[in-house]
Amino acid sequence: MAAAAAGPAPEAWPELELAERERRRELLLTGPGLEQRVREAGGRLPPRLFTLPLLHYLEVSGCGSLREPGPGLAQGLPQLHSLVLRRNALGPGLSPELGPLPALRVLDLSGNALEALPPGQGLGPAEPPGLPQLQSLNLSGNRLRELPADLPRCAPRLQTLNLTGNRLDSFPAALFRPGALPLLSELAAADNCLRELSPDVAHLTSLKTLDLSNNQLSEVPAELADCPKLKEVNFRGNKLTDRRLEKMVHGCQTKSILEYLRSGGRGGGRGKGRADGPEKEEARRRRRERRRRESGEGEEEEVGSTSRLLLRVLHVSENPTPLTVHVNAAVKDVRPFIVGAVVKGMDLQAGNALRRFLTSQTKLHEDICEKRTAATIATHDLRAVRGPLVYTARPPQDLKIVPLGRKEVKAKDLVRQLQLEAEEHRKQKKRQNVSGLHRYLHLLDGKESYPCLVDADGDVISFPPITNSEKTKIKKTTSDLFLEVTSATSLQTCKEIMDALVLKMAEINKYTLENKEDGSLSDPEADAVSGPPLGPSTSPSAEKDGSAPLVVEQVRVLDEDGHLRVVYPSKTDLGCAAPHVTVIR
Fold first, then answer.
1. Reported confidence tier of residue 137, pLDDT bands at 50, 70, 90
2. How far from each other are the two terminal CA atoms of the chain, in whole angstroms?
3. How do beta strands 337-344 and 550-558 pair?
4. Omega before 569 cis (within 30°)?
């Protein structure tokens, strides 16, 4: 009997056998059969998983029987760059601790049952740092009552920390010590029980975004205004004793809030400066908003809304004509990762909506895409996209495209033209740096082939990281879009950037519908980029109450043999959306 029971064990994890045989660097374990197999393994991951040292990306999600990763992870996966263990049952701690993982950059433990991460049952050792390269840590949706005090020493290069939806009542003092987390740019701890924010938060010199909404804060320290790069704060849903500040956090921009704190407002008081009355502040706010609407600038703050944003995910099985992308092996050594999505219901025709959309894409390229070095976004008019699509790579002399605003050209000639333009631009402006597409030419240096996305007609519609095709150009009349994100870094990078893009589109669409901008105020620059409107049109999402959801259709990415590489959005994507976003699945 024992021998019979042990017989099928080698086939219990066919994904591992396939990953080992094909020397894969990415592995996704999910699906209905996973829970039973993990339960039979004692609530842990199978030891054989930790004999795949080539893995760069590992995701195990949605498994209610996974209580701990199991021993051997750190020793067996030394090259792991991204570890995603979200929506499982990990907790109350991690035994044994995860680290050391010297190459790990992304760690997602959201949606588990973690209560504490003490030494030996946490993320890794502090001396030497267990996660020395970690950039993004997501602990949202757990039951944490406190953070480990040694977190800054364990992950000294942390850039993004998401603690939303836990039970924290304070931050450890070590988090805000001078130089503790010099690169931390985003801190999210909404929906906790935080009672105070230390004035030492000013030591987070790289902080750009701070979300402490829906906590129990009564004061905001004036020192927060000393964070030199801070651009966005959210203190909604607290019980601030300063009534004026309470009003400002619900209606004013970050700049105004920081100016109020800086001038000595009772946000936690430092000094006794005198600020203008609320009427003057409100008048100034209205003037600034009017100027931004007229210029098309400041869209990031303009699109903020206290009402909820709705996103409806359309599963592949619900879609009679789903779009698919086939990945050719030729991109493996060039730019191997791609994620796609279809978004329907955008209103780009009203006012400056199109310009806001294009500007937001540019800002994402500058920030989260790290000037297109981490990833590149491309957006297309879905009506002009003929699938299925093929993501491949071609020699520069064989790749032809009709770039935006140009005639058909070979990639090698386009690159040469852009290089000449860049040199001429330098001479004219007498500068050492260049702007526009010219800044990204160096990303192609030394490449024997260039990546491209080809449609069913054989036309190249995208040449990342340089340009899209005129064939699928976004216009003011575009309401349905195909989105692509490509990267040489990781699949997880593509998915995170796609999340950010889709959420930004939802914000822009919500703002457009609620503000009823006059279409006659269209922006000439946006028209020049995207072409003039074809005639009167109304977006299908432009309902009277402005609450119609954007529809996000799943796009599958397959390998040459037709095996699924990734589908977006999956059940775990868009799972870390802001509190004001509702995702309907």
1. very high
2. 45
3. antiparallel
4. yes
How far apart are the C-alpha atoms of 355 and 168, rounded to whole Å?
Answer: 40
* Dihedral of alpha carbons 6, 7, 12, 13, sign: positive
Interval 269-279: pLDDT, tens:
443 333 445 55
Helix axes 353-366, 491-515, angle to 10 degrees: 150
pLDDT tens sequence across 28-82 = 887 668 888 898 888 999 888 888 888 888 888 888 899 988 888 888 898 999 9
- What residues contact 46, with CB distance under 8 A and at least 6 apart? 12, 13, 16, 37, 70
Conformation bin of residue 165: beta by default, left when phi > 0, alpha when psi is -120 to 50:
left
Whole-angstrom distance, CA of residue 58 vs CA of residue 81? 8
Entry field: residues in the chain: 585
> Which residue spans within 229-308 are E strands per DSSP?
232-234
Q: 251: left (phi > 0), else alpha (psi -120 to 50), else beta? A: alpha
Instruction: Find the helix packing angle between 243-251 and 254-262, rounded to 10°.
Output: 160
CA geometry: angle at 471 spanning 467 and 476, to 5°? 90
**Gap between the Cα atoms of 201 and 173, Å rounded:** 9
For tokens 């795949």, what's the residue? 52
Do the beta carbons of residue 466 and residue 439 sit within 8 Å? no
CA–CA separation, 112 vs 62, rounded Å?
Answer: 10
Of the candidates 404, 412, 390, 384, the residue with the CA atom closest to the CA atom of residue 458? 390
